[in-house]
Amino acid sequence: MEGAALLPRSQLQHAIVCTLDEVQRTARQRGWLAAAEVLSRAQRGARTLPSAERRFFADALHQMVRGLRRLRYLSGLADPGASQLYLCWLLDTWLGDPQGPPAALRAQAEAAGLRVAEVAQRRAAVEPPIPIDRLGTALSYPDWLVRLLSAEHGPEVTEAILAAQNRRAPLTVRVNLLRGPREALQARLAEEGVVSRPGALAAGALVLDTRINVYGLAAFRQGWMELQDEGSQLIAELVAPPPGGLVVDACAGAGGKTLALGSLMGNRGRILSLDIDPRKLQELRRRARRAGLTNVQARCVPPAGPPVDLLRRGADRVLVDAPCSGLGVLRRNPEARWRLSPSDPVELAARQRAILAAYAPLVAPGGRLIYATCTILREENDAVVEDFLRHHPEFRMVPIKEILGGERAARLGDGERMRLLPLEEDGPDGFFAAVLRRT
Ligand SMILES: C[S@@+](CC[C@H](N)C(=O)[O-])C[C@H]1O[C@@H](n2cnc3c(N)ncnc32)[C@H](O)[C@@H]1O
């Protein structure tokens, strides 16, 4: 787990403990989706704190929610309370420091019923190299998830993925080409005191080296950029919208991919953004306005598929960015590992097959259907595409190397499909994409 570098003032510690308590209580009573809402609300409430404290508050809570299983184990208690978990989290970090925990923390922990020497012993038992059967405890994941991933990716890759997903994601933004090129955004950010460098994979990506509240920057408010992982940006590049073309974003949500497509299309052609959730589409419209996009139309659709009168002609591109288990973006959703259940991937794969089949008829002859997810399971990725191709002989795979070039495609998978694994702390989230052409 990442580190608590300092012992903060007691009011802040109190707020952290109270929030963790409420998150856990909500999770028990109303499930982890509701608990995630509590966490986001608390974080929004912390906006008034000085920036170092706000970051400590967010980091502490994210790391503790991710680390619940490990912290419970370290405590040695059957049912540790929020303050004991918090102290275990501090001890966990300090025990990795050559000087060990400060005397004040030791005293606080002992007074709360934790035996610091025993915490240290338990911690040593889950130090690397970690046997596969201890990975769930050591890195704080449910055992079913460790088993599922290691059956598919092997124990070493699984450990790397699970460790990386316990880290903070890099702060990556995408330039809005309607405002200017990436270099111009970089210069604007520098004027606001933000150091950035081009991303390694996506053509429009800048990675910010200055940790900052991006939403407060003038460059953000003026629509020059959006927060977006490089993997997600690459999906818009793979859609490769033709100039002046008609693009359907079938599962548009709050518009991450729509906005990236809009940036590539430069307000020429048309984007039809669909979703079953009207609140997400409202957010999409707001973001499209800020970006200066005038060719986006958002429309709410029924879960069964598009209404028959949706299009008068076939679309050049249909993107299905399907609902999925999100195993490629666990680091962004600290509670997700506790919320998911072993039956989710199977159920989601059935939904993904149905959505893909429902939107395929919108593709014009010669047009393309792009299937994408932010998960790393074959069942929700390649298996869905293969099932689709078996039932739709009028579609053929387009190797991604034909779109991005061999050198770039080789960094994203086998050159045929994009298979990004979230292995590296500074690397992209986990994403999958396949491009299919209607013959
Ligand atoms: C992975 S998210 C989309 C993320 C979005 N494309 C982005 O880049 O920000 C999947 C979306 O699919 C939507 N969805 C679920 N079932 C759907 C269906 N049957 N038809 C259309 N959208 C659906 C969900 O509401 C959710 O917003």
Question: How would you summarize what this structure contains?
Answer:
The chain folds into two domains: 10-127, no CATH class; 230-438, Vaccinia Virus protein VP39 (Rossmann fold, 3-Layer(aba) Sandwich), CATH 3.40.50.
Question: In whole angstroms, how far apart are the ends?
Answer: 50 Å
SS-derived structural category: alpha/beta
Low-confidence stretches: 1-6
> Count of DSSP helices?
19
Instruction: Give the total of domains.
Output: 2
Distinct small molecules: S-adenosylmethionine
CATH topology of the largest domain: the name is: Rossmann fold
Total DSSP E strands: 12
Gyration radius, to the nearest Å? 23 Å
Strand content: 5-15%
Largest sheet: 8 strands, mixed
| The CATH superfamily title of the largest domain | Vaccinia Virus protein VP39
Percent range of helical residues: 40-55%
Kindly report the average pLDDT value: 96
* CATH class wording of the largest domain: Alpha Beta
Overall spatial form: globular
- CATH architecture designation of the largest domain: 3-Layer(aba) Sandwich
